[in-house]
Design goal:
Rossmann fold, 21% strand, elongated, alpha/beta, 2 domains, Arc Repressor Mutant, subunit A, binds calcium ion
Length: 241
Amino acid sequence: MNKRILIIEDDKDIVEALRYNLEKERGFSVLPAYSGDEGLNLAFQVKPNLIILDIGLPGLNGYEVCRMLRREAETRDIPVLILTARVSESDKVLGLELGADDYITKPFGIRELIARVRNAIRRRESEHDAVEIFDDGRLHIHFGDYTIRFNGQEPKLTFKEFHLLKLLVQNAGRVLSRDKILDSVWGYNYYGESRTVDVHIRRIRKKLGPGVDDYLDTVIGVGYRFKAAKVGKEASFAAQA
Ligand code: CA
């Protein structure tokens, strides 16, 4: 079955070029939207397999669209690829913080864009079969619902913090390098810097508070590891049916 790609972009020439090239590839069908509001409505109606999202849009801008997509359970798992002329570091960071999967700046090569579309879809599909719940009686994480309970608190993690934690939990006991984490959570090696990972780990530690070191290890010069703490009942991993 074709993958449905929603393109939210007000530049009709870009939309047509993307549509032509994606549909020529086979396996893709393209839906265009020319404003943020129209795109958001379509996203909820058709649940596309991926969204290509411009930032400078009439109505809601791309950041606002991305934020709303991530807030709703129905659209939160749709991969979003941001496409924009804005190139400053803070613009990129903002897009990724809001939960975009990838970032492409204009002008872009069509081959590269298609490769990134495929990667983003594949990455999201492989996450679907993964562990959904971690629970050892003290730390409870439900990855499907994006909820955590720890020491009687319910810390609120951002989308990226959650994905980082999920990756570590799924690889419990193994040390993951910053590059591996960047690649899995952010999706590409060359944009991200390793300090992005450090910053997110620091925020997760702060949000979970005292006791988090029973679970999160920093391996100096290498990366990070999730370890199941020796308290409470046996840790359980459950994949939801
Ligand atoms: Ca635009």
